[in-house]
Please model this.
Amino acid sequence: MKIVAFMNQKGGVGKTTSVANIGAILAAEYGYKVLLIDLDPQGHLSEHLGVYPEDRSIYDVLVNNLPAADAVRTAFGMDILPANLDLSAAEVELVGMMSRELRLKKTVGEWVKNYDYVLIDCQPSLGLLPICGLSFAEHVVVPMEAEYLALKGLSQLVNTIRLIGENLNPALTLSGVLFCMYGGNSTLAKSVKADVENFLPAQVFTGVVRRNVRLAEAPSYGKPIINYDATGGGAADYRQITAEFLHRLPLDGELPRPGKIFAAAGADSGKKKKRVKSASPEAATANKTPGSGGEKKIEKKTPAKSEPARDKPAKDAAARPASAEAVIITPVIIWRVPAAEPQVPASRAPRWIEEKVESLELKVEIGATSTQL
Model:
């Protein structure tokens, strides 16, 4: 069993999104038994998965000694201990308890042993609830944005993890830094990522979660990304992150499992396969090697003088000379230009045609219609 806390004292960095989607992929595509613990009074993790607890939440487990099994819900193949606004009062009510920092470990520590992975969505602060989560966890993953303020907060968080490890939980380890909402074209993003890699060279995830509208839409439908847009870029990013997560944190004595469901569906989510044109019957016959059983060798006939290429029907496009290249402007429009001329960007095509029209033959194909210029 692995207990992993997703923690960052800065809000809005993709922490809840990562817990929900990594957990969903671990359960649905790898077959692990997963428990999610929503330790944020905002209850965004619960809402992300369509769970709206009116009663029997993690608050009752921590404060009222409710058995965790009575508060757990099931969603998308995972179990979840949900949270609501009642949890905001827990910090005040736990103040007078002995060893309040270890309250989560005492209430659910034995019960969670039936799970393979326990993922904790911590509150974005450095208060009592996040410390309870870090005191219970074995590993910490820090989702963050590639921005200056996030970089500054990372050093504070690393120091907090060190202090908790020295005083409350010696098993606690920083196991990963995950960049979310990453804009790879930004100079700032590249610079911040490089700084973190220099500061924590072994902890930064190789993969990143790029900015994606579908990831932002999924919580409003109460679904993980693999149930909302299984073949989109957001799902692909989190599948890559989950695979790396398993290599960083495999179960004891077990190699990471293959993603069974995703492997079966992988052909549908990848790039379209290139079609391979089969040879014509005449070409296949001509390529046969004559045997010794009286077969006649088929001589290659010299074709009659052909008409100009512009008069050939569209079905003979494959026989056109190799000197013609195709620059695809749209899926239905093809500009054919001699190889000696440069390929023209779509944005410059009209002006370029005016400049080259005297010395260039162009053919526009739109569907079944062919026009000669």
